[in-house]
Write a structure and sequence with these properties.
The protein has 3 domains: about 50-55 and about 270-355, Elongation Factor Tu (Ef-tu), domain 3 (Beta Barrel); about 55-90 and about 235-265, RNA polymerase II/Efflux pump adaptor protein, barrel-sandwich hybrid domain (OB fold (Dihydrolipoamide Acetyltransferase, E2P), Beta Barrel); about 90-230, Helix Hairpins, CATH 1.10.287. About 40% of the residues lie in helices and about 25% in strands. The protein contains 6 helices and 15 strands. The chain has helices at about 10-20, 25-45, 95-115, 125-160, 165-200, 210-230, and strands at about 50-55, 55-60, 65-70, 80, 85-90, 235, 240-245, 255, 260-265, 270-275, 290-295, 300-310, 315-320, 325-335, 350-355. Strand 11 (about 290-295) and strand 12 form a beta hairpin. Helix 3 (about 95-115) runs antiparallel to helix 4 and helix 4 packs antiparallel against helix 5 (about 165-200). It is elongated. The two termini are about 80 Å apart.
């Protein structure tokens, strides 16, 4: 009877070698397919549509042409509503002088008329009154020059702190401001004294000519002085709380009315604007639930709702998620979506949106 042969025992290392040669490649292949499927689903396949977080943006402009006197903020500074951002000089020095010189010319014409029309007995009073009005015009011109000199001094002080202008230029602007301040003080005293003298020699009887002519000149001078005082300088104030994102002009540059000078952006997003690409696979409506997924290494998901749906397709920039491509121009239907609670999002951040059926 033939004996049954016993198998030769195999070493453990040889068995492990067989496992590695037969089974490990299959397991590695399946793991690679699973990883590829996961990466494709998470990072490569496009979502239903893409949205952008929006915030309030305000452009600061000037209502009049002029010169930007100063800018009190820098880019990325946080500002509060009503805070002064800068100053705009609505008139140049030449324009202010020309405006007041025109008033002086009108006074010269009126003085000539009064010399011809008034009687000799009240000629001195009328002459004194015209001289008083001329002194007020000269005072208004001196005050206007002083305002411009003060703005120039402040500008040179800031530029000196940044080592842009020399100490000599700053001292020259300071001397000019002090000289004009002294001139204004002297002219104010002269106008006050002349006014007292004029009041003391005012005729007690009725004038031989209609006093409305001189009164109209007096009112015109007051209106011109008030206009120069109000329009000589305009303050730029922030209409919202936010951050300075752009400064378009530098101090000293001439600006035009309606030109954007500073842009203020809100620090928090207010809503999400998304665009459904063509062809539209579904019809969105207000109240539909949308899943909002942030991008980045730590993706977070929140739930929001559609607030409004646009009425027409609009052109928008579609960011491509495939590496090596930037963006493309497409047309899509805009939808407005509220912000999901508890999901931190920056204004301008791109998010992936998925409409839940």
């Amino acid at each position: 009877m033939e004996k049954q042969s016993t198998p030769i025992p195999r070493p453990l290392a040889e068995r492990w070698r067989d496992v590695r040669l037969r089974h490990v490649p299959v397991l590695a292949y399946l793991a690679g397919i699973g990883a590829a499927f996961y990466l494709w689903n998470q990072h490569w396949t496009p979502s239903n549509f893409v949205g952008e977080v929006q915030a309030t943006v305000a452009n600061i402009t000037s209502a009049q042409d002029g010169r930007l006197g100063s800018v009190a903020v820098r880019q990325f500074d946080r500002v509060a509503k009503g805070q002064v951002l800068g100053r705009v000089t609505a008139q140049t020095q030449d324009a202010a002088n020309a405006s007041l010189a025109a008033m002086r010319a009108d006074l010269e014409i009126m003085r000539g008329r009064m010399i011809l029309d008034q009687h000799r007995n009240d000629q001195n009073y009328q002459q004194q009154r015209v001289d008083y009005l001329e002194q007020r015009v000269e005072l208004a011109i001196a005050r206007s020059k002083l305002r411009f000199a003060q703005n120039e001094l402040e500008r040179n002080e800031r530029l000196r702190a940044e080592n842009i202008v020399s100490q000599f230029d700053y001292e020259l602007a300071l001397d000019n401001r002090d000289a004009l301040a002294a001139e204004v003080q002297e002219r104010e005293a002269l106008v006050a004294e002349t006014g007292k003298v004029l009041e003391s020699i005012k005729p007690s009887g009725p004038a031989t000519r209609d006093p409305l002519v001189l009164d109209s000149i007096d009112e015109a001078i007051k209106a011109q002085e008030e206009q120069l005082r109000v329009t000589a300088e305009t303050l730029l104030r922030s209409p919202i709380d936010g951050v300075v994102t752009r400064i378009y002009r530098n101090p000293g540059e001439n600006i035009t009315a309606g030109e954007a000078l500073i842009t203020i952006s809100g620090e928090r997003g207010e809503n999400i604007i998304g665009f459904l690409r063509q062809p539209l696979s579904f019809e969105p409506k207000a109240g539909d639930v949308v899943l909002v997924r942030s991008r980045g290494n730590r993706q977070q998901v929140g739930q929001a709702r559609i607030v409004k749906v646009g009425a027409r397709l609009e052109l928008f920039t579609q960011p491509l998620r495939v590496r090596g491509f930037d963006s493309s121009q497409e047309r899509g239907l805009p939808v407005l979506i509220d912000l999901p609670e508890g999901l931190p999002l920056y204004p301008g951040e791109l998010v992936d949106l998925v409409l839940k059926n």
